[in-house]
């Protein structure tokens, strides 16, 4: 072996060795909760960047944005978030939905802080990203003064604020009802035993649902319907220069945190009682019935007549008097090679 070949092989082997730090990081990234945390972080970030960016166009742009654009931004932001994280964490992107999943026993409570932390950090980073992208427009529009209320208010780019015609408790009721409608429809979308959307279309259908909620019920309180959508960006505006007024304006800040989980829980209960309990379900398999993997043969419905196993595949032999006779067929599972299943 020449010196060049030895050097080339040595270089190839050194490339294949994974440093301990990278190997440790790979092990951490394979942890289920870490993956779910990152999935919620990334999906919430994407949803919020599209949504808040649409709001910035409506507030700052003179004919560059619209209320419909805001609904489309959040709706299709949800769609993209579901494509990013749907098969990893379920792409909640909403602390109210995570709370409901835990309260109904669909998810362990130990995952609740992991999901919510990922959502909050993703939402906070999205607010910072939008602030960076639109900084000059914000300063020009507000004439250098970051206001929470008034004709040059820009805090509403990042969080929801009650309009003058709404009282605090009417806004609370509005958030409960709107979030309940969201959860009620999501329960139908995700219920495989009812009438779910076609495979692969769940994300787009959910995005359309968010758009419909916005255009039909979003006027009163800005349809926060999500603590993860409202509180982290509000906190960002507090530290970015808008000041404590973001929490004092009509004492509204706590409503998008408390009302959506209550509304989501009620919506899920209503679906479970009114719809879920009356939806036909698959018959349960008896405990002493072999599984599909054990049997390797399909289970025929009870109404289907059982055909005899003897068929053209049954072995035929010739007796000494030259008359064919039918031999007993071997068991079906022994006559089929597993690699053909």
TrEMBL record:
GO molecular function: glycerol channel activity; urea transmembrane transporter activity; water channel activity
Superkingdom of this protein's organism: Eukaryota
Pfam families referenced in this protein's UniProt entry, alphabetically: MIP
BP term (GO), one: renal water absorption
Reactions mediated catalytically: H2O(in) = H2O(out); H2O2(out) = H2O2(in); glycerol(in) = glycerol(out)
Cellular localisation: Cell membrane
Topology class, membrane: Multi-pass membrane protein
Transmembrane segments: 37-60, 66-84, 115-134, 168-189, 201-225, 252-274
Keyword annotations: Membrane, Transmembrane, Transmembrane helix, Transport
Transmembrane among keywords: yes
Subunit structure: Homotetramer; each monomer provides an independent glycerol/water pore. Could also exist in other oligomeric states.
Matches recorded under NCBIfam families: MIP
Family: Belongs to the MIP/aquaporin (TC 1.A.8) family.
Protein name per the record: Aquaporin-3
Organism: Camelus dromedarius (Dromedary)
């Amino acid at each position: 072996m020449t010196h060049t070949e030895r050097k080339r092989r040595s270089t190839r082997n050194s490339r294949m060795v994974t440093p301990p730090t990278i190997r440790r990081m790979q092990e951490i990234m394979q942890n289920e909760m870490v993956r779910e945390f990152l999935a919620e972080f990334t999906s919430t970030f994407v949803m919020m960047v599209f949504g808040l960016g649409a709001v910035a166009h409506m507030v700052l742009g003179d004919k560059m944005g619209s209320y419909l654009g805001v609904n489309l931004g959040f709706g299709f932001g949800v769609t993209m978030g579901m494509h990013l994280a749907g098969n990893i964490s379920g792409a909640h992107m909403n602390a109210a939905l995570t709370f409901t999943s835990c309260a109904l026993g669909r998810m362990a409570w130990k995952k609740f802080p992991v999901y919510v932390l990922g959502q909050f950090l993703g939402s906070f980073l999205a607010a910072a990203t939008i602030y960076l992208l639109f900084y000059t427009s914000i300063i020009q529009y507000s004439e250098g003064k970051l206001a929470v209320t008034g004709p040059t208010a820009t805090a509403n780019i990042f969080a929801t604020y009650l309009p003058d015609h709404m009282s605090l408790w009417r806004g609370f009721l509005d958030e409960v009802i709107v979030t309940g409608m969201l959860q009620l429809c999501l329960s139908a979308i995700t219920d495989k035993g009812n009438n779910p959307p076609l495979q692969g279309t769940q994300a787009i259908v959910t995005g359309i649902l968010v758009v419909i909620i916005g255009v039909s019920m979003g006027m009163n309180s800005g349809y926060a319907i999500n603590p993860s959508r409202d509180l982290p960006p509000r906190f960002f505006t507090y530290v970015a220069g808008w000041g404590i007024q973001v929490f004092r304006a009509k004492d509204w800040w706590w409503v998008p945190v408390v009302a959506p989980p209550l509304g989501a829980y009620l919506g899920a209960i209503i679906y479970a009682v009114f719809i879920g309990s009356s939806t036909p379900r698959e018959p349960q398999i008896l405990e002493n019935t072999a599984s599909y993997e054990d049997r390797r043969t399909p289970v025929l419905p009870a109404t289907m007549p059982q055909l005899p196993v003897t068929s053209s595949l049954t072995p035929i032999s010739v007796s000494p008097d030259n008359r064919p006779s039918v031999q007993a067929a071997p068991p079906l599972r022994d006559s089929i090679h597993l690699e053909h299943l």
